[in-house]
Amino acid sequence: MSVPIRGPLAAALRLAAREPVALAAAFLAALIAEAMLTMQPLFLRAFIDQAQGGAAPKLLLYFPLFMLAAAGLAYLFDLIAVAIRFRLQRGLTRRLRELYVEFSDKPKPETTRFALRSGLTGLAQLALALSLDLLLVLARLSLILGGLGLGDPAAAWAAALVLALGAALSYATTARLGRLSRTRELLAERLGAEALAGRPGWRRTLDRGEMVADKRFGLLSINVLMSFLIFRVLPVAVLFWHVYGAGGTVGSLASAFLYLSMLRAPYQELVGLLQDNLVAFSESSVFAVELERGLKRHAATVAVPFGLIWERDTGPAGRPLSQALAEREVLDDMPPGAPGKLERLRALAERSRGASILLYSEDPAVRAFAHFVRRGGTIRTALSELA
Amino acid sequence: MRADPWLSRLLALWLGSFGGLLAFLYMLFLGWSFDGRSMYQLLIR
Asked: A338-356: string of b/e by CB count within 10 Å (b at 16+)?
């Protein structure tokens, strides 16, 4: 994990963890929905076997009734899980945007626009993906493989092995594809520069660009191959196994095929999660440094409920960080000796008795008014500050 | 994060649905039988 993203991701995960009941409810609801759906092939198998055994139609009616009840419960719990996840993501994105606008530096307009438009949403999604979605999709796959294993243990183990291989390969290829995309962009820029300047190396740049395109094609083909092996070859292998090996009823064969087809959606979801997370990782690094600094400032104002905190860690110069009349403020100082400076500091110190204020300053005059000093990330009382 | 009223409603719906799940499980294990076997026993053979 790159260093700049670690802080904001940890903060986003902490924010997500503030709703443990909702997270647990969403997780359990999704599991219950999956368990209800996973039971469908079992009912089907029992129905076919009883029908072949000559059971009365009145008895056979109960199987579709149970299937309908299970499907209804699956729909209800799935709806609840998705709705909770939507509300959690909405709240998390809102909070990250609030913290970013109020406490983060905004040196480049395009970075700010990107962060507020989609970057922070991606970070919120990443946090929820790591705390909820990934666990859910692994639980779903385990349930389906468990259901498959009840009728056909060998097929379940084979499917689990192939799925794990496919997911690992997909993650590796996506990471590699990301690096290749950046290389391709750099090469395109270099080609443009060489063409404009008339430098001789442009043919070599063209060759390298084509090599990168070939590698991309190869990597994308690996993903397609894994999909083919899991969802085409494996079911046929199960057929061969039944004919030449395990035997088994028509019902168990039908339910095995149904389980293998049910694996497709969660597997594609897992691959999609891994790919999206990698994209969100690299996108978040664009604004991660500013966001992390903003989160630390927010933490500083929250750590001290009342008082004027003199910020001694030099930050980037620029416009004031906050012009809002919020309960907690972060302010740039006026230049030393500016008219009305001491009155302003006095007013700030007075106002900080109601709520904490973080003040950036290199003016020694602040010492007389500050209650706390923040240096190297830690807050101490102003008495400990050397003259 | 501010308290979300919709989360409370969804949690209430979750509890209600859980009651339905318990009723389903009762029928699966105890409430119905054929030849002395419950539906669960028919499923796992």
From this structure: eeebeeebeebbeebeeeb
Q: Which two tokens stand for residue A64?
A: 């579709």
pLDDT tens per residue, range A175-201: 777 777 777 777 888 888 888 888 888
Question: Interface of chain A against chain B, CB under 8 Å?
Answer: 15, 18-19, 21-22, 25, 29, 32, 39, 42-43, 45-46, 49-50, 55, 59, 62, 66, 69-70, 73, 76-77, 80, 83-84, 87-88, 90-92, 94-95, 150
Scan for tokens 């930050």, then name that residue: A315
For residue A283, which amino acid is it? E
Which residues, listed in sequence order, are joined to residue A311 by a DSSP beta bridge?
Answer: A360, A374
The burial of A240, by beta-carbon neighbours within 10 Å (0-12 exposed, 13-18 middle, 19 or more buried), is given as: exposed
Contacts of A94 in chain B (CB under 8 A): 1
Assembly ipTM:
0.89
Q: Are A16 and A23 contacting, i.e. CB atoms less than 8 angstroms apart?
A: yes
Of B24, B32, B42, the CB nearest to A46: B42
Question: CA A11 to CA A280: how far, in whole Å?
Answer: 15
Chain A residues with CB inside 8 Å of B32's CB? Answer: 62
SS3 A304: coil
Residue range A199-257, pLDDT digits in tens:
888 888 888 888 888 888 887 788 788 778 878 888 888 778 777 776 667 777 787 88
Q: Report H helices in chain A.
A: 3-16, 20-38, 40-52, 57-60, 62-103, 109-114, 120-128, 134-151, 153-197, 202-228, 234-241, 250-262, 264-284, 288-303, 341-351
Closest chain B residue to A35 measured between Cα atoms?
B21
With contact defined as beta carbons under 8 Å apart, do A334 and A361 qualify? no
